[in-house]
Amino acid sequence: MSKPVYVIGHRNPDTDSICAAIGYAHLKTAMGEDVIPARAGKINAETKYVLDYFGVSAPVLVSDLYPRVKDVMKGTISIHPWNTLRELGNVMKKNKLKSMPVVNDAGTLIGMVSVGDLANRYFEEMEMQDLSSAGIDFEAVLRALGGTLICGSGLSRTVSGYVRIAAAQTSTISDLVQPGDILLVSDREDVQLACIEKNIVCLVITSNANVSVRVREAANERNVIIIQVPYDTYSCARLINQSIPVHMVMQPAVTAFKPTELLTEVKNIIVATNHRNYPVAENGKLIGLIDRDQLIVPQREKIILVDHNERTQAVEGIEEAQIIEIVDHHRLGGLQTGEPIFIRHEPVGSTSTIVASMHWHRAVEMPRHIAGLLLAAIISDTVLFKSPTATETDRQTAEKLAAQVGLDIAEFGMAMLKAGSAFSEMSIAEIVHNDLKEYQIGEYRVAIGQISVMDPNEILSFKSELLDYMELVRNKERYDMVGLMVTDIINEATQLIYTGPGASLLHNVGHSDEPGILYLKGVMSRKKQVVPLMVEAARR
Question: Where is the CBS domain (predicted)?
Answer without folding.
Answer: 72-128
